[in-house]
């Protein structure tokens, strides 16, 4: 049981004496929800703090500006704000949430959308947000007309082939041919360019992509400074992994970035190194849990599509969360979370093929096409770890099914740290 409840941004946080595994907390919650028809998402504040500590360790000197679009959960934002993190916003709504909820001040926001909605740009300017990104001459004119005091960060296109979501097609100018021309045009129009940004692509698996971008940035800085632009900001964008694995880790990326910054920008005190991580912070703190409300026995080959399974049993489970809700990350982010039953067995029961379906009438609402679990009962819960990126932020209530409700938890030490603000990033 929790020791006490703390309020954070108007939300109750269950505070436990010691850190607890998300499965244990989810089990306790589910046990009290026998009649509930709603799924839930559990948020661990300790995991948010741990991500921040890992960032400080692996990328010292690089200030993270969390990309709000990835997950705009207010408690996540409040926790990051208390740690001194800045914010990458792309809309008026995101900006207002950061300012009005007292999460951070305008100077800790970068308006990181190369093609800005005119009304949002005026609003950002009025609030005193100092910088925005741009990648075209058209945007330079827009900035000059609507936000004359705002400084520009030039977004270049320098994508990584291994990235699973490539952003280079939509945004970013050519770093060799386009950037010098835009710097000249900015000078003529009267927009001050203070730095260069990039997004190597989401879930980039090659740390050298960042090194390549930093090398381009160095040349662009040389050009810009020679034209009289006060260039100081090196913005490394997003793409940092939510989960470390054998293919990629923050440690591997950090090592490459720090070496490249030392090589190309050795006088670090002259520069501001920043990044816009989204999934890096949002993925692991969020655990989803959903209840089985329907179970159909079928031939296993209907699930596995293997002839030899024709005489075996398989199950179709229908749960109260789906791809329109928390599992929207499947479509929007190409992430395929894997379920576990919330109540474990001793491992001796046979695992049978199963399909996990979302609750809506849409046949595309399929959470897991083929998985293997012991035979599960109606009323049992499944859970999924690490589901915080581009999931609840893109959830809708299609077909009238409610979105997951959030529950928050922390241990006493974590809560103290968040409340005191002692752990603030100093860069
Ligand atoms: C400008 C910008 N910065 C940062 C991010 C965050 O990317 P990620 O979640 O891969 O770190 C995005 C994602 O689309 C983006 O467009």
UniProtKB/TrEMBL annotation:
> Which enzyme class?
lyase
Keyword field? Lyase, Polyamine biosynthesis, Pyridoxal phosphate
Q: Which GO terms describe its molecular function?
A: ornithine decarboxylase activity
Q: Which Gene Ontology cellular component terms are annotated?
A: cytoplasm
Organism expressing this protein natively: Panagrolaimus superbus
The entry's protein name is: ornithine decarboxylase
> Which InterPro entries does the protein's record reference?
Ala_racemase/Decarboxylase_C, De-COase2_C, De-COase2_N, De-COase2_pyr-phos_BS, Orn/DAP/Arg_de-COase, Orn_de-COase, PLP-binding_barrel
Cite the active-site annotation: 361 (proton donor)
Q: Which pathway features in its UniProt record?
A: Amine and polyamine biosynthesis; putrescine biosynthesis via L-ornithine pathway; putrescine from L-ornithine: step 1/1
Question: Which parts of the sequence belong to the Orn/DAP/Arg decarboxylase 2 N-terminal domain?
Answer: 45-282
Which biological process terms from the Gene Ontology are attached to this UniProt entry? putrescine biosynthetic process from arginine, via ornithine
| Function, in words | Catalyzes the first and rate-limiting step of polyamine biosynthesis that converts ornithine into putrescine, which is the precursor for the polyamines, spermidine and spermine. Polyamines are essential for cell proliferation and are implicated in cellular processes, ranging from DNA replication to apoptosis.
Q: Which residues form the signal peptide?
A: none
Q: Where is the Orn/DAP/Arg decarboxylase 2 C-terminal domain?
A: 303-388
Required co-factor(s) are: pyridoxal 5'-phosphate
Q: What is its EC number?
A: 4.1.1.17
What top-level branch of life does the organism fall under? Eukaryota
